[in-house]
Specification:
This protein is globular. It has a single domain, classed as TIM Barrel (Alpha-Beta Barrel), CATH 3.20.20.140. The protein contains 10 helices and 7 strands. 39% of the residues lie in helices and 18% in strands. A 7-stranded mixed sheet has the order 1-2-3-4-5-6-7. Helix 1 runs parallel beside helix 2 and helix 3 packs parallel to helix 5. The two termini are 14 Å apart. With 272 residues, the chain is of the alpha/beta class.
């Protein structure tokens, strides 16, 4: 059956509610899917219930922000205990780090002379079906930029330090302690600064990553082939997903097209 194991909802920066996700998954004839929001599982229970009601295969997941050598790496976690306290703490702390980073961006924009107000930002609310995050939507609504591309241009030269997310070792250990399966998300974009090679992937192997998201919108054919071969040589799991955020960010559900026969899910099948 068709699979998409990397979908975002309104709980993080996607613009689809759980109901919309399930409806779109059915429309695309995807038989197995996963929700993997950034540092939150808020929409997992409702999506799981809707998926089971629709007769769809579902894996619960989360995409954990980590930082290594000054670069952000996303570790996908699947099949963990939804009530594991250490994982809940890690996700809560990561969301707080992200909130502080967004606030710092606004402070930097104010310092750069943009006519915006910090109290206005604190009070600001937006419709989460727009997708994105608070500082992005605030900047758009206050006329600082027109959209996502303009936002990244806007903040490119700001002195806003990236969040101090935990080392991948910590995230992987917490995920495994919660009974979960840690997968390195989209290596092709995460390792764009150094390339996807045996050398650049070796640290994650040493940290007991369980597999790679080999099939990704971000990968060309050569990167996909390398990731598949690497996982097979090291006896690791193979996953794939669209990183779809609904209409936000331009990534389409079910792209790249992946069948469960293309994947190596191993222990993940126990969590379906």
């Amino acid at each position: 059956m068709r699979a998409d194991l990397h979908i975002h909802t309104t709980a993080s920066d996607g613009c689809w509610t759980p109901e919309r996700v399930v409806a779109e998954v059915e429309t695309q004839a995807i038989g197995l899917f996963a929700i993997a929001d950034h540092d939150t599982i808020a929409n997992v229970p409702s999506t799981k219930a809707l998926a089971h009601e629709a007769g769809l295969g579902f894996l619960h997941g989360v995409e954990v922000n980590t930082r290594l050598d000054g670069h952000i790496f996303h570790v996908l976690a699947y099949g963990f205990d939804l009530e594991a306290p250490a994982l809940a703490t890690l996700l809560r702390e990561n969301r707080a780090r992200t909130d502080r980073y967004n606030e710092n961006i606004v402070r930097c924009l104010i310092a750069a002379g943009y006519p915006i107000d910090l109290d206005d930002y604190f009070a600001y609310e937006y419709d989460h079906t727009r997708g994105g995050w608070k500082s992005l939507n605030f900047a758009i609504d206050r006329g600082c930029c027109a959209g996502l591309g303009g936002y990244f241009d806007l903040i490119a030269d700001l002195p806003a330090e990236l969040p101090s997310f935990p080392h991948p070792a910590q995230a992987i250990a917490v995920i495994r302690a919660a009974g979960g399966v840690p997968i390195l998300a989209h290596p092709g974009i995460s390792l764009a600064h150094a390339g996807v090679t045996e050398k650049t992937l070796r640290p994650f192997l040493d940290l007991r990553i369980a597999g790679l998201e080999c099939y990704s919108h971000y990968h060309d054919e050569a990167t996909t082939r390398f990731c598949l071969d690497w996982c097979k040589r090291h006896d690791l799991l193979i996953t794939g997903g669209s990183d779809c955020h609904g209409a936000f960010a331009g990534r389409k559900l079910g792209v790249p097209a992946v069948d469960t026969a293309d994947l190596r899910l191993g222990e993940l099948l126990e969590h379906g």
